[in-house]
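Quick start: read one record
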Amino acid sequence: MIRNVLGSFLALLGAAAAVLSPFRHWYDGRLGRHYRIDELFTGITGSRPGPLGSILLVFLFAALLTVVGVVLRSRLLVAAAGAVTLGFTVLWMVRQGEAVGSLTVSGDGSGLRWGVADATAGAVLMLLGASVMSGRRGGGRRPVGGGHDQPYAAPGSENPDTWPPTQEPGPSVQTSPLPEPEPDLYTGPPPEGPRTRGRPEDQDTAPHPSLPDEGPDTHRPPRP
């Protein structure tokens, strides 16, 4: 957040300096808005174009690109605006140097002036702002219908959960064809083994003897 604010401030400051530069002297007392755009490609002449035909239009476009980049937090757009401003400034210096033979800086106002410095500084500030900005974060899309998470719909019977069950609601089925093992409910004494052999308290008791059925009791005396 802080990086975006600082980078946006630097980029907007650079855009303002670039737009202001054509209204100041560039070379030998000539304003920057007195240079035509096509002169940067064909050669410097002494003609004075209108505002929409001068290099002011280029810097206005760069400033607009900077504002859009700051609003969208796009480092690419801000860097492109700085590259356009710096590129046209350097191209003007090349054509002006070809026209006069060499570029000079003198105190009497016959050389490079503050307009060129403003354009160069504005381009550097825009590039610096683009490098400071952190841009957009969080590449995931927000859910449709608001910023709150929407619950998932319960799956139907055609798409049941598998075993082990998942976290989503819905019926669960067993994928194995074998039945589930049931716990052994036998709680009696353990089977005879080497550890229990010879211990009378761990062995089964003898079965109760059963007498054969002798029929009616003949030894009971008859009733009187």
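Residues 143-147 have pLDDT under 50 and may be disordered.
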